[in-house]
Amino acid sequence: MEELPDFDIGGGEKLIEMDSYDDEDLLGWLFKDDLQNIELVELNIAPENPGLAPQLQPQAPSQIPLAPKPVEVERPTVSGLQKSQKRFKTVTPEELKDLQDSRQAKSTKQNTKWGVKVFQEWCMEALDQVFDFATTETEELNNVLAKFYAEATPKFSEKRGKEMSTAQSKEYHKNSMKNIRAAINRHIHDLDRDIDIVRDKEFRKANETLDGKLKKNLEKGLSRPTKHKQIITMNDLEKINSYLYSSDGPIILRFRVWYNIAMHFVTRGIEFHQQLQINSFEFHFDENNREYACLSHEMKQKNWQGGLDSGETINDKRMYSCEGDRCPVASLKLLILKTDPDATSLFNHINKDALSSKTPNILQLWYTNISVKSYQFTRFMADVSKNSSCSMMYTAHCLRATAIQAMSDAGFEIRHIMYMSGHRNEASVRSYSRDCSTLQKKSMSDTLSTLSTGRAPPQTGMPMPMAVQNNPASDSVISVLAARDTPNVNTMNAALSSNNFMSSGFISNSAFHNCTFQINNPQ
């Protein structure tokens, strides 16, 4: 069989090799199929001078010179690949704008709008014009802000008049003034101006004015303390647990799972639970063969908004199972089992049949595929408080504050509490942890009462600074309380707990276990 030549048609790496073939043979081989379709047509052309016309003789096909036909090779194009298998998605201008607007949370945008509104209302009253943040020079902005900080006052309302004195009702809370300043700063950034009214030295005058006003309010007794979320009392906790485990009906089960998740994952409530999907939890066993539930994806929260500047969220918190009929993992599994398979959210509306049935356990499904709305989540804790006959109405944020306080009282280190709560610094944790529980406050007051009433013994145990320790929390609490009642001023045996007191010096960065301290009282 004749060996075919190697040749290139434009896309390969090899060039035409013509070692054993000449041009004519090669072109003849390339176009041998085309020769079969050639028809000879005799043309009779009459020239102007017939005498000069040459006599054309027909020639054989082999004698007719052939012009090579150009070879066209169809190559794949980029557009062709995109049409066949498209990799990148296409977004509309509206979708692009939505992505840009997602940089800030909805609550942050509302806070920005409120702060700018307060400032513009002052401008209309004091300057008789709307302030232009886009073009105003830095120096003028500094002067206007200084005057605004000095003159800003809230609107009077009957509620403010009832909750505080008349003088206090005429002043913003210190945190409100800081929020207004931060809102104005965000608004300026949104206008693409490279200005920071909080940190730039050009706004030192305005910030010094605000600082001076807050200190002046403190001197005059106009500064109000920050109200923290209420810690749920032990009596109310017992009432809540009794109610949540009183039955396995669809209403109580949904409350119970919501309550357990809020406690074990130390959530803030609405935003967290709205994101929970039917597949948001995974179930595993640890090395001791104890089952636990954990999240399968990251969750957006107040201090974890994602984005370029956000770190990794803590995603391996665990809710462990426990023996008995009050297992949180078993309740979560039952909720998932009783939910419509087409549901996407974890918390959904209750099926009408299950809601009206006196024996809902015989029904296969209790919950529909319609998600619970955000405003309904705000009522969950209030309904639980009411149905449990608590001493007061609690909010979902109270659960978070109670969980953090419980870990603090149990002796867990600050870094471990931050791991569970998601806080980024210790100062934020301290705003939740009151440092002293109700029992501890009562014990300290009783101790001081013995001094103020003159019934103190000649020698009484002095309070001991507490630092980081590794012994179990339950032992440390008992040991510290026992040491408090020991009437010995020179020698005190105390197990030390970290979170109740952040001392300075060598104790703040030390760990003590089963130690004896000798304290000498100089005469």
TrEMBL record:
InterPro entries assigned to the protein according to its UniProt record, in alphabetical order: DNA_brk_join_enz (IPR011010), Integrase-like_cat_sf (IPR013762), MAVS (IPR052787)
Domain of life of the organism encoding this protein: Eukaryota
Gene Ontology biological process terms, A to Z: DNA integration; DNA recombination
Cross-referenced SUPFAM superfamilies: DNA breaking-rejoining enzymes (SSF56349)
Gene3D superfamilies per the UniProt record, alphabetical: Intergrase catalytic core
MF terms in GO: DNA binding
Keyword annotations of the record: DNA recombination
PANTHER family (UniProt xref): DUF3504 DOMAIN-CONTAINING PROTEIN, MITOCHONDRIAL ANTIVIRAL-SIGNALING PROTEIN
Protein name as it appears in the record: Tyr recombinase domain-containing protein
Organism: Mytilus edulis (Blue mussel)
